[in-house]
């Protein structure tokens, strides 16, 4: 049965929001916060940057929220507006009121957010679980996408890693700081969560999400992706097999761009942002177009 995401109780919700507000101080550039109505509830949006280039929309990873992008937002918004979303049905300041009943609903949700923001065309960037959500938009509603970038898309172009899911479930059942730190060190080596980030991630475990997991796309689905696509992975990632993904994409979508970085894993965004973001922005600028808001 489709679910509506929510915290397990009001105390958990308030504790999460309190830490969230503290973490907002890490956002390094001026921003405007908006709560945008959609069919699925209100979506919390953080708008940063100015400029006339095609805007970027950011979709975060599992258990995170829009503040995840604080480490890279300054470089992303130098010449354009960037919208960072709290995904509906996940912990954050978005409030889900209706369930997402199918994969195409993610595309509907993004389209409704863009309608409310009065934005016509965007570059969509998703990280981890956010990459799954981004590729669903590329599949079901590509007409508004100038490009799509998928950072560490586990279980999208190859089989999901049940080992990762099992370790996450175990850490969720035994929520000691030691176990959660151990999971993060294994999942994202090279990137250590700050104290506030860690506290927020731990409190997010008290949220019961209203969305499902990624699945491996069928060949016909991958071949149908028509928007310019960049896939970024760490060579040491535990959520996918980057070389197999690259080979599959070369066969099915030869025009897709794939970048695999040695010496890093799933925490690539925090580990080597000085390499990832210039590559992302080069791709974005190559696909900026004249249809701007």
Automatic annotation (TrEMBL):
Pfam family, one: Abhydrolase_6
GO cellular component: membrane
UniProt GO MF annotations: monoacylglycerol lipase activity
Transmembrane segments: none
InterPro entries membership: AB_hydrolase_1 (IPR000073), AB_hydrolase_fold (IPR029058), AB_hydrolase_sf (IPR050266)
Keyword Hydrolase appears in the UniProt entry: yes
GO biological process: one example: acylglycerol catabolic process
Residue span(s) of domain AB hydrolase-1: 56-275
Keyword field: Hydrolase
Gene3D superfamilies: alpha/beta hydrolase
Protein name: Hydrolase, alpha/beta domain protein
Lineage, uppermost ranks: Bacteria, Bacillati, Actinomycetota, Actinomycetes, Mycobacteriales
